[in-house]
Amino acid sequence: MSAPFTFATAGSIRFGAGVAGQLGEVVAGLGSRVMLVTGGSPERTAAVHGGLDVVAQHRVGHEPTMDDARTATAAAREAQVDVVVAVGGGSAVDLAKAVGILLVSGRDPLDHAEVIGKGEPLPATSVPVVAVPTTAGTGAEVTANAVLASHQHQVKVSLRSPAMLPRVALVDPELTLDCPPQVTASSGMDALTQCLEPLVSPMATPLTEGFCRTGLEAASRGLRDAFLHGANLEARTDMALCSLMGGLALANAKLGAVHGLAGPLGGMTGAPHGAICAALLPGITAANVAALEARDPQNPALGRYREAARIITGVDETEALIGWLNETLRVLEIGGLAEMGLTTGRIDELCDKAARSSSMKGNPVVLTPEELAFVVRGSL
């Protein structure tokens, strides 16, 4: 018998080639004073948002920070914005969600931030947010949080509330066709990680397990091909689906030690989130399997790791999964953590920060500081 569970997601999800063309119609039903949040090159997506009546705009060409949230929210408030539209990668979508909720809160983002802030509850409502992702990675279009970096604390943390779920998500694989190979690689590995970690999470449910399986199947077909042949719409569609499935899963079943380490590591080095996840995923997978076999051999996560191996490789063995992950890093030309700026002298600091991360709650087994440090050293 299944345990009780709840499930929450965006108010409406529209998926498929060409759905971005519905943006004007969607926005018209939500508000008339639009803030547009984009990546660093809004001209790339001008055909999508060019028809909107925009009264405020914010570009974010990097992973968003607390200062970005403050600046964008102040501009939106001054312009009396009543709907926020994000057209861009996960950074743009996360910032838009932060703006939407902070417009209602009226507080500083640190007042609500996890770990480093006061952690005060966010409002029960948000200014409506419409999310149009242009990368296939974070699944932020269907998650109830926004990740913000604090340079002061050298860490990335979340604002989190069910009210932050976008009102509408338009997931159009055609928007990812011109995504550069390096971004395709790192965002794609993030999407894959966000299907594997919720699958083995102790908070997994029958619904999230189904999303994870579908996402892993899509990644096994499309990840390498989207990197090698960027104009292949079928591969791009697979990865957009993988990203969406991962977002649906993680929002309801949490993540694990890969993201527990990736948050503080991104804050410490400034390296791309997806690339960090990619470098850590094989080692964390191996460490989790070893710890489960030694300390909790009846844990259902072991069977789910074997299931993931079967979905991706056709072989019902965790070694096959780990081998496939390592080979994929080679194909995608993703290097180790040392190339991303981590030095051996900061490993203990990283593991100490990771231990306080909310993502660690979704790991299928508690990894010791020594086990975490071993994984990090092996991922350099």
Automatic annotation (TrEMBL):
Lineage of origin: Bacteria, Bacillati, Actinomycetota, Actinomycetes, Propionibacteriales
Name of the featured protein: Alcohol dehydrogenase
Pfam families assigned to the protein according to its UniProt record, in alphabetical order: ADH_Fe_C (PF25137), Fe-ADH (PF00465)
Residues annotated as domain Alcohol dehydrogenase iron-type/glycerol dehydrogenase GldA: 12-173
Domain Fe-containing alcohol dehydrogenase-like C-terminal: 184-372
InterPro entries: ADH_Fe/GldA, ADH_Fe_C, ADH_Fe_CS, Alcohol_dehydrogenase_Fe
Ranges in a coiled coil: none
Domain of life the protein comes from: Bacteria
Species per Swiss-Prot/TrEMBL record: Luteococcus japonicus LSP_Lj1
Family affiliation: Belongs to the iron-containing alcohol dehydrogenase family.
Leading EC class: oxidoreductase
EC number of this enzyme: 1.1.1.1
Alphabetized UniProt keyword annotations: NAD, Oxidoreductase
Record-level Gene Ontology MF annotations: alcohol dehydrogenase (NAD+) activity; metal ion binding
